[in-house]
């Protein structure tokens, strides 16, 4: 399996090529600034002076706050925390893989801990 990042041009693709996603999107892109700053957090810290953060419980990482701990992830499905408003999917799995209960791995041994049940609730937000 080849690993590919999110292609910016995909935001202009037909909806059938975007795993059924429709509606309004929020897209963050600070790559142009990463060349002059070590990372996006450095850029924001040096540039934005009046900063208000969303509450921590609004922004969750799929693998951290949604996927049950090991070994429960073998029989429990990932859950959406009640206060979550933004779910980030850094690395793998991507949302379409999480819906299918797939977590691509580089080596077979990683399937021991990189496994999930289908996160069917993601489809509710893609409709």
Describe this structure in words.
- β1 (59-61), α3 and β2 (86-88) form a beta-alpha-beta unit.
- The protein is mainly alpha-helical.
- It folds into two domains: 7-52, no CATH class; 53-127, no CATH class.
- The protein has helices at 31-34, 40-47, 62-66, 95-100, 121-126, and strands at 59-61, 86-88.
- Strands 1-2 form a two-stranded parallel sheet.
- It is 23% helix and 5% strand.
- The two termini are 28 Å apart.
Structural domains: how many: 2
The tally of strands reads 2
**SSE ordering:** HHEHEHH
Main sheet characteristics:
2 strands, parallel
Shape annotation? globular
Largest beta sheet: strand ordering? 1-2
Q: What radius of gyration results from the CA coordinates?
A: 17 Å
Instruction: Note the total helix count.
Output: 5
Low-confidence residue ranges: 1-6
**How much helical structure, as a percent, in the residues?**
10-25%
Portion in beta strands: under 5%
Assembly type of the shown chains?
A: single chain
User: Mean of residue pLDDT?
Assistant: 80
How far do the termini sit from each other?
28 Å
**SS-derived structural category:** mainly alpha
């Amino acid at each position: 399996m080849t690993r590919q990042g999110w292609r910016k041009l995909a935001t202009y693709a037909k909806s059938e090529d975007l795993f059924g996603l429709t509606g309004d999107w929020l897209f963050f892109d600070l790559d142009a600034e990463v060349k002059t700053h070590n990372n996006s957090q450095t850029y924001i810290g040096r540039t934005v002076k009046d900063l208000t953060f969303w509450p921590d419980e609004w922004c969750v990482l799929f693998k951290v706050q949604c996927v049950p701990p090991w070994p429960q992830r073998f029989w429990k499905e990932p859950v959406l925390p009640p206060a979550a408003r933004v779910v980030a999917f850094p690395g793998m799995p991507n949302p379409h893989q999480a819906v299918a209960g797939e977590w691509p791995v580089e080596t077979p041994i990683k399937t021991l801990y990189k496994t999930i049940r289908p996160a069917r609730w993601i489809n509710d937000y893609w409709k």
